[in-house]
Amino acid sequence: MGNVDVLLIAHRRAHYLAQSLPRLLDSLPRGARAWIWQNESFPATTQVIEEYRSHPRFHRFHHSRENHGLTAATNWLWQNANGDLFGKVDDDCLVPHGWVEEFAAAHERPRLGVIAAWHFPAEDLLPETLETRTTPIDENRSLIRNCWVGGSGYLMKRACVDQQGYLSRQRGFTGYCIDLATAGWEIGWHYPLVIQDHMDDPRSPNTGIRTDRDLQELAPLSASRLDEPTVEAWLAQLRASALTVQTASLRPQDHRGWRRRLQRLVSRAVALVTHRGLA
User: Fold this and answer.
1) How far apart are CA 215 and CA 213, in angstroms?
2) Nearest to 60, CA basis, from 72, 44, 71, 49
3) Which phi-psi region, left, alpha or beta, contains residue 105 (left: φ > 0; alpha: ψ -120 to 50)?
4) Mean pLDDT, contiguous 10-residue spans, the chain (279 residues)
5) What confidence score (pLDDT) does residue 278 get?
6) Backbone angles phi, psi at 37, to 5 degrees
7) If we measure between CA atoms, which residue out of 190, 183, 133 comes closest to residue 160?
8) Which residues fall within 8 angstroms of residue 240, CB to CB, at 6 or more apart?
């Protein structure tokens, strides 16, 4: 396994960071380095970060006094790291031990561009999709294919950045993955599933979102777009997102104008899971 550089972006949710940062650091093997970016100045967040600065896998820290979001932080890693594989973990996600080793082994496949941990509960997996969307990587693992994955718990070949360049605000990570798929890179989730705990999912045992007020106060980025900021609506959107990524076209050209296309797909999936009584 070559060098691996993994980014964690911290903001204002120190209660999640106090779990996700030590988990990330402890999960990294030798040859892997954690890069920490803090947006804005929140004393509780800074305190958590300072507590782990001496960890042997804590490699580099950048404190942005303004909130520059995900794009600037991701590009900071891509522009400055020299690893063979780049990764990112959100501060609301707990990655499992061994994920880097599993994904690095999968990356022996030359055209594998991005492989990710599954960030929904296993109950959201549609077994009937496996046969049509899964391709073998080697004798021990396969890839559940899609044209994009979530922005947490993934490893991507540096060669992808060398070929395609950096993120822009107009092209987030979803669009970036779709462009990679268009260029012939394989994108998807590791199978057997490697599951990261998404603590913003109310079904997580570590969630901070149990009531509508919790949701409004924590305000995950995706949940901030809800018409009605309720736990029920948030659960419906999470289930819809899981349905969308498992039923979306595997043809990258079908995702031109991807923002509008994905918005339609998620809206249809929300209606479907609500109609089924799953929300």
Assistant:
1) 5
2) 49
3) alpha
4) 90 95 97 96 96 98 92 97 97 97 97 97 87 93 96 97 92 92 97 95 95 85 76 92 92 75 52 47
5) 47
6) -120, 125
7) 183
8) 266, 269, 270, 272, 273
pLDDT at residue 122, as a whole number: 82
* pLDDT score of 218: 79
The tokens of 182 are what?
Answer: 């268009």
Q: With left for phi above 0 and alpha for psi between -120 and 50, is residue 153 left, alpha or beta?
A: left
Q: Token pair of 90, please?
A: 């959100």
Q: Could you tell me which of 274, 111, 271 has the C-alpha nearest to residue 188?
A: 111
Q: Do 150 and 87 form a contact (C-beta atoms < 8 A)?
A: no
Q: What is the pLDDT of residue 206?
A: 96
Instruction: Give every CB contact of residue 268 below 8 A, 6+ residues apart in sequence.
Output: none
- pLDDT at residue 270, as a whole number: 46
Count of residues in the chain: 279
pLDDT at residue 255, rounded to an integer: 87
Q: What is the pLDDT of residue 269?
A: 47
